[in-house]
Amino acid sequence: QVQLVESGGGLVQAGGSLTLSCVSSGDISRIDVMGWYRQAPGKQRELVATIVSGDITNYADSVQGRFTISRDMAQNTAYLQMNSLKPEDTAVYYCNLHRTWPEFDYWGQGTQVTVSS
């Protein structure tokens, strides 16, 4: 059974930076995509960034150029470096591991990021 534990959230002023971490345990050998999602109050959960084999990354337009996703496979850890934070980045951030076949998603418990203006 795969378990994910996120950390690194908190309160930061606009323009500041935070780094989120997601440590996974269990068998992740069949995981195809690692990603970060976020959900702001009253809004749907949205994709922030993904990383796949070959360290190919993909970002939401709203965070392109400000956020960087990376991973350390030896440590089973994914990271999300967030720079130039804006109040609209305030949300609960979730780590996600996606397996293509059979399709399944693993989710962390979420970590709160609050950006004050």
Task: Give a structural overview.
It is a single chain. This protein has 117 residues and is mainly β. The chain is built from no helices and 11 strands. The strands form 2 sheets. Strands 2, 4, 5, 6, 9, 10 and 11 form a 7-stranded mixed β-sheet that branches. The protein has a 4-stranded antiparallel β-sheet with strand order 1-3-8-7, with no helix packed on it. Strand 9 and strand 10 form a beta hairpin. The mean pLDDT is 95.
Compact summary:
By secondary structure, this protein is mainly beta. Helix content is 0%, strand content 56%.
Backbone structural class: mainly beta
The major pleated sheet works out as: 7 strands, mixed
Shape: globular
Mean pLDDT: 95
Oligomer: single chain
- Count of individual beta strands: 11
SSE order, as H and E? EEEEEEEEEEE
> Strand portion, in percent?
over 45%
Please mark out the parts with pLDDT under 50 across 5 or more consecutive residues, or reply none: none
Radius of gyration: 14 Å
Helix content: under 10%
Calculate the terminal CA-CA distance, rounded to whole Å.
Answer: 40 Å
If helices are DSSP runs of H or I spanning 4 or more residues, what is the number of helices? 0
Write out key terms for the chains shown.
single chain, 117 residues, mainly beta, seven-stranded mixed beta sheet, four-stranded antiparallel beta sheet, 11 strands, 56% strand
